[in-house]
Design brief:
single chain; eight-stranded mixed β-barrel; 10 strands; about 45% helix; about 20% strand; disordered N terminus; binds ligand C2E; binds magnesium ion; cyclic-guanylate-specific phosphodiesterase
Length: about 280
């Protein structure tokens, strides 16, 4: 009986593994179609100065307009895109789309605004990255000073030589560099002081409970002070409440991003974007 139960369990497990694998394969196929049929869209979320509440930039965030399933958020497909390598094509589409939209739609936006683009670890490793970005900038006429690239701690830790030279080249083009989701990975200030990085984006997991969690308060305050000693600007992501905003101002956090100010929206909506001070 034990054997049968074991078998049953095994086959059940096996089946669910199989269906997970099937779902992944389906997703992979759908992603290939999505790239070909241009089913992706970008939404933009403003990044504001904490003290004057001025918009200093917008982060481009990808969404997938799936023909049957509606709008799909990146957490549902970026992982598989990364595993299968599809992120490379998707990533270039994102860079191109941001640059096209900057040239087409930003007539009402005031400089010096930057548009932030997320680079996944695989993209960051891609040997054609710099050449392709240069090409896109030439084709669209976008000034590198309008761009910021967000890389994750895991991307920059893997091969420091490569990281250093890639970041330097991006900076030579005029772009700025932010470390995304800071505090969730294993990078250290010891390493950061040697890299040409401009900003740290404190992960929203440290912000969510900021009002009540004393450890988070100490961590965030400490991160901001350390970053400032290294002449890095700090962005807090995921600000949802006035109290979080107040604490971050008190800690001298430079920039903020979150639903309190604005959720990510399509580029069209930015034209009539008016920030109402709190
Ligand atoms: P991220 O780069 O850390 O982006 C910030 C995420 O936090 C976004 O989620 C944004 O919508 C969300 N967010 C902003 N403010 C708030 C807030 O106040 N509360 C809460 N709960 N969330 C907030 P989104 O758009 O779902 O993107 C998730 C992740 O997917 C991004 O995290 C980024 O890692 C990845 N991603 C998005 N677009 C791209 C892309 O074009 N390329 C690559 N490689 N990754 C992307
Ligand atoms: Mg980001
Ligand atoms: Mg982030
Ligand atoms: Mg994040």
């Amino acid at each position: 009986a034990a054997k049968t139960a074991g078998k049953k369990r095994f086959s059940f497990y096996d089946q669910s593994l199989q269906s997970i694998a099937m779902a992944k394969l389906q997703l992979e196929d759908d992603l290939a179609i999505a790239i070909k049929d241009k089913q992706f869209v970008l939404h933009y979320q403003p990044i504001l100065t904490q003290l004057t509440d001025e918009v200093t930039g917008y982060e481009a965030l990808i969404r997938w307009k799936h023909p049957d399933q509606g709008l799909i958020y990146p957490d549902k497909f970026i992982g598989v895109a990364e595993e299968t390598g599809k992120i490379i094509d998707i990533g270039y589409w994102v860079i191109k789309e941001v640059c096209n939209q900057i040239m087409l739609r930003t007539s009402n936006l005031q400089p010096p605004l930057r548009f932030s683009i997320n680079l996944s670890p695989k993209q960051f490793k891609d040997t054609n990255l710099l050449e392709n970005i240069r090409h896109i900038m030439q084709e669209t006429g976008v000034d590198g000073r309008s761009l910021e690239f967000e890389v994750t701690e895991s991307s920059i830790m893997e091969d420091i030589e490569h990281t250093n030279s890639t970041l330097l080249q991006l900076k030579k083009m005029g772009a700025s560099i932010a470390i995304d989701d800071f505090g969730t990975g294993y990078s250290s200030f010891a390493l950061l002081k040697h890299l040409p990085v401009d900003k740290l984006k404190i992960d929203k997991s440290f912000i969510t409970d900021l009002e009540t969690d004393l450890s988070d308060q100490k961590i965030v305050h400490g991160l901001i002070s350390m970053a400032h000693k290294l002449h890095l600007e700090v962005v807090a992501e995921g600000i949802e409440t006035k109290e979080q905003h107040r604490l971050l101002k008190q800690y001298k956090c430079d920039l903020g991003q979150g639903y309190l100010f604005r959720k990510p929206v399509p580029m069209d909506h930015l034209q009539n974007f008016i920030y109402k001070p709190l």
